[in-house]
What we know:
heterotrimer, A: mainly alpha, two-stranded antiparallel ribbon, 2 strands, 67% helix, disordered C terminus, B: mainly alpha, ABC transporter involved in vitamin B12 uptake, BtuC, two-stranded antiparallel sheet
Amino acid sequence: MFDSSAHANPTRNRNRLQLALYLAFCVAIFAVPLFIDDDFLLNRYARYLVLGMVAMALSLSWGYAGILNLGQALSFGLGSYAMAMTLKLKTVPIHTGPDGLPDFMVWNNVETLPWFWVPYQSTAFAIFAGVAVPWALAAILGWFMFRGRITGVFVAIITLAILVVANLLVIDQQRYTGGFNGITDLAQLEILGLEFDAYSKSTYFLVASCLSVCLLGALAITRSKAGLIFQAIRDQEERVRFFGYDVAAYKIMAMSISAAIAGLAGMLYTVVMEFASPTFMDVPLSLSIVIWCAVGGRQSLLGATIGAIVVAGMQGALSESETFLDTWMLVMGLIFVLVVLFLPNGLAGLLDMAGRRLMRRPGALAGGPAPAKGLSGQKAKDQT
Amino acid sequence: MDFLLQNVLTGLSIGSILLLIALGLAIIYGSMGVINMAHGEFVMLGAYGTWALNAFFGMGLLSSLVVVFFGVGLLGWLVERGVIQFLYRRPLDTILATWGIGVMLQQIVRLTVGGELRYVEMPHALTGTISILGTEISSYRVFVFVFVVALFLLTWYLMNRTRFGMQLRAVVQNSEMSACFGIDPKRIYGLTFAYGAGLAGLAGALVAPLKSVSPEMGTSYVIDAFFVVVLGGVQSIFGTVASAFLLGEATGTLGFLWNDTIAKALVLVGIIVLIRFRPQGLFVSKVRG
Amino acid sequence: MTEHLHIEGLGVEFNGFKAVNDLNLSVAQGELRCLIGPNGAGKTTTLDLICGKTRPMHGSIRYRGREIARLPEFQIARAGIGRKFQVPSVFRQLTVRENLEVAHCKHISVYTNILRSGRSAESDGLEKLAAFVDLSDYFEAPASVLSHGQTQWLEIALLLAQDSELILLDEPAAGMTHQETQKTADICNRLKGKHTIIVVEHDMGFVRQIAQVVSVMHQGTLLMEGTVEEISRDQRVREVYLGSTLGI
Lengths: 384, 289, 248
């Protein structure tokens, strides 16, 4: 079955194929504006790419390290608010009070800019904070949970509860957060003289670059020694501990990297959507992220990314009508249940299996066309 | 003194609702180890069931309780047979699958009944207030409290003094062995899940007059219920009671000092910290594991 | 032979039940020690205590003269103690080579490992290890395709990759066919002298094949020590095992 003479080194071949697929995906998303010259559509596609990015981040912590973070939307929302805060402070005076105070604060009788808003007058700080705050929060939460050997379902519920708490607080503290309405009427992002209009190629390319860098970076992490150990922890946490590894440190690392990528995605989302809202850090979004990741394939970074793009894209196409959208969510719920039951590794796992079968068939060309074979980063499905 | 009593009573009322919602989850999670994320949706369906029975058949709240219990219970049985029985070895996937079922139930309600808020009337006899030691309290809340206590005692009796309860405990300990003694684990699990779901339905029916009924009302209930169960100590039904009232009092008091949102946030954070240091729950002694 | 592991007055209770009670045990460098005893004698708990899975309440465990009784598991593992659990635990979704890579890694910090390639340059050594337990043909195969016996051998290879000087094996032959048991005994015999090994085992046939000195535990404490012949003749051991199926 594993005849080593037929393929000199199957693992190495798989890895090369996998890298080729990832690169092809990156080239493809950069090529999109060559064929589409509609800024409205590009804005939409940029949005889906951002959602792909946050699903990819979840795949890293859930699919690879086995940490089911149901509060992934929290990191996303924190990034989104960080960007919105700085863009709000830079917006045109119509939307601010006399001293450049955001309009919603004026309406709520806030007289001076709160201390935690002050540093956001610097865009550089905001960009730093948009990644660093989710990263630090995840690291603290991870330290708190994993040092206490909290695992499995408890991690899922605790992360979900933290998300609920944060969402409640953001809505409750309307004076400082804009409450239900979120933060709207923002300036355009400007970095080093480059303007990023939400409806322009420049923003699309910004998103595509960030996604490509994060995707390839995450792939590199999964292929590092630490990535191998993440997967080992996912399979048998105790065993890894008795090899002398500090398991908690690894899990904290996986969770905080994932949160940092989600934070970056959140920032881009604000740029693309031109506002931030509590719905960017609520339970339904977190659920959607999990669904995208599960449908695309939790153990494949690219699978999760494409899963999010396709599912969110279809949802976007149907969102013209509310009934359609509700029906769509019903269908999504069903698909999700079916995927969890019968296809734990999602579509990527399915393609991986199909590719494997193709390779094993007698007469198949070695290294021949097996389009999806390397899509999943994982080596084989657990048969049990 | 007066507001202290007022506070204690508010806490008892919140606690009784928490217990009502948590009791079903305690049975399901405590005995089967399944976290049913659709639990909140079962509560929601109970509330809608009561509303529908009233709107279409003119049934009062009290008479609809029986229908709601069996209706939601049947749904729970179907969910266990159709989905959950395949996932007993994959606890994380159970969370996901039941979450997906929750989404479906929400959408079905949205598509059929609509997303707008619905209101359920209290039974006429219970709309007044009762004076307890000079403090006025809604008689409906007193009714809920008494009902929950009765329901709890019934559940305790069912789990500890009946043949079914004994079989359930046997199956939980060792399902293969129990099967050898002629107990059908599938039947026991199905019925247990149905009972837990039925309790959630009752909770929804009783909560309906106190809160507005909407498709998404269940979302936060499942988190509350889960934490009540874990804090009390899984498999300790008395622990569930104690923690429900403890959390009720904490929420009531903090809500009085600040506001309800802050209270809720603080209580959730507090529970998380407690779980971190006492994962076995507050009211259970540590066992070898 | 120098003393490698020294246990003194070791004890732990679970809810008042004394699982291990005032246990004294000493194992020399390079020795293969078998630990036997009836069910509930505290054999597995003793291994748990040595590797840090369970915290002792009393007593000391000295490994190469160093007190390890209260160190966290990962530090005990780094000190050179490897443990194979009763239920075979390998990483089923990783290949045999990747399994060995995880066990073999000399650097344990997450910060350095995130910058290092998952494929180490010295996979020669790993291939030799796979050959040692007869898994060469499965080197690039996922561990999930291995049979029960092969999984057990892979786990032993993992302990060797980890470079443990002291190896704790909990029922390595459990659930194996006769041939597989033979092969496991053979692996253990080849390791004698190079590693210090403690084996907990029920199968007396297996114990006879590998044992030098056997320690018999009963009710959490050491009943007697000796060669297989000595303990088979001992009256107390016979009483302890009376009615059990052990073929002494």
